[in-house]
Every structure is written in C-alpha cells, then in structure tokens.
Amino acid sequence: MPDDVRVYWMTGCTSCLRTKEFLARHRIPFQSRNVLADGAAYAELERFGLRQVPIVTRDDAWANGQVLRDVAELVGIDLGAPQVLPVTELRRRQEAILAGAARFAAQLPEDSLGTLLPDRPRSHADLVYHIVNIVDAFLEHEAGIPLRYEAYFRLPPRAERAALLAYAADVKGRLAAWFDGPGRGRDWTEAAQVYYGRQSLHEFFERTVWHSGQHTRQLMWVLERMGIAPDGALGPEVFAGLPMPEEVWG
After folding, report:
1. Global pTM?
2. What is the mean pLDDT of residues 176-180?
3. CB burial of residue 31 (10 Å; 0-12, 13-18, 19+)
C-alpha cells in the first residue's frame, strides 16, 4: 500500500474530483489537501516547483492528476490499456455539450451571473465562460499555441449573458470549421503540446470534451439549485464512455 499519498485539489475542479474518485475506487488511502481551504497546501507543493492542481504526491515523487496513467504508476495501480472514443464520436459529444451549455446559460437570470459557486471563487458567468474557453483552448493549440495552465483560468471580458452566448456561438462555429477544414487530415496520434504531461492529440481532445462536459453538468446543477429545469438537459448518452467524475460537485 502506498505510503503518505497526498492529493492537492480545489473545490469545483473537474480533474481534482476525478482524481480523488479514481484513488478511492482503487482503495488507495490519501491525505486530502484542499488548496482553497488551507493556505499551507500550496506551500507544500513548492518543494516540487509546482503551483497547480490536481497533483498527487507520494513521498518525494509526484504525478499530475490530469493524467490518470501517471497517477496509477505513482501509486501502483494496474490501469490497463486506455479506451478512447473515436474522434468522430468525440466531436459529436463536444457539439452537443457546447449547444447544451449555451441553452443553459440563456436560462441564467442576468442578476445571477455574479453569484459565486459554493466554496469556490468562480461566478456563474465565469463557469459559462470556462466551459467555452476549454474548447477555445483546444482551437488555440491547433493554431500553434501550446496549452498552459493559466489558459483555464481566464475570466470573461464582459460578464453579460449576451456576450457569453455570442462567445459560445463563435467557438461552436470555429470548431465546426476546423473539423471540416484543417482537422480533416489531422494526425490524432501526434503528441499534444500541453502542460500536464504526455498526451496524444486524441487524448487531449477527449479531455477537452469531458472537461467541458463535466462543467456543463455543473451548470445544469446550478440551474436546478435555483429551481429552474435545464432546457433539454443532457442525459447519460452524452457522457457515456468519457472518463468523467461520477459526482457533479466536490
């Protein structure tokens, strides 16, 4: 059994929740270190030269929780061969997620856009923007801009519903244009230039899909907490086969 395994995470982080569920499912005990609740947690990561989450440490070694095979290797789990949905299916799921996110964003009352999520300094407007920006970051990668950790912490230039919906429509259109243009002959086995470890482009796009999908689940959850039924709620068929967390928030 691994000694002194720690998970550094923050509330509302999709990869953080997935990492904790992964370890719990494999019965790996770990110390939980929420960097939003305990300022000392980030200080503990400084010896690794890190200031990002999720990170799993075991004694003097660490792995980025966004790559479960690296976590599995660190703690001694036999993960087996990864199963990734075909790119055509991932595209279909991504388009459904973006369309759903736009529908749900349109249902948010304008005066609720500044409301913060539970135990996380992220507003409803920030959440909508983040969902779309995840896909935009993939398109940036394909335009020659490597993915940096900071890319996922951008804030909307205008926290207004109309601006958020316009951004969603723009990214949805650019994604379709990329797939129907440069993406048609793309080598999906090529290594992706991402900050969190070894990933093929296929794996990076899979992460883009489930990452935006998990946050869209959170957006539906936000509406439900407000007593608003999500318009055309996304069902299990959109998320089946994606390596997502089971829970929506945590």
Report:
1. 0.92
2. 98
3. exposed
